[in-house]
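Record 1 of the preview.
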Amino acid sequence: MKTLKLFLIVGFLLTKLVNNLSAQEVYNIKTHEVVISGTSNIHDWTADVVDLSGSAKISSNLISEVNLIVDAKTLKSSKGKIMDAKMQDALSTEKYPKIFYQSVSSKVISENKGVKNISTFGNLTISGVTKTITVTSLSKTLLNGNVEVSGKFDVLMTDYNIEPPTALFGTLTTADKVTITYKIVLEKSK
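->
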């Protein structure tokens, strides 16, 4: 009888585990608004991320296995083509054309009215240098079943061996810190 109980308990736990694993579904990026913002000794500036691709696994409780790729050559500055060229040069896009983010772990910090506050720990690779970062995002399921993830985080360019760009023979200098603000809509993979 004890063997039968143990067998039933193990069977139940295995079924629960398989159901939880299979409940994770792959979602791909449908739309995105990602802006890099910074400042200089003369003016503030922004750059839009034009080409972003990636995916994540989503279960009812958590976003995991986030993989994002930015085509660094498609960053578009609010200050025009000269700043675009300065960014491309600073990021060494000829040698490192892509920026990568891969999550390692995630956890739900809080939830309020269907909006989850999620902390994700992962690796950000810029210009061939990988650093571990923690990103806090807000996540909510939209009426059509898509998932919207939004937030912002700061990056120091020098952490990635990037010299902050200058212009006008050094009279314009950019600050080391940039802020990445994002709103990404994910849709279930077909």
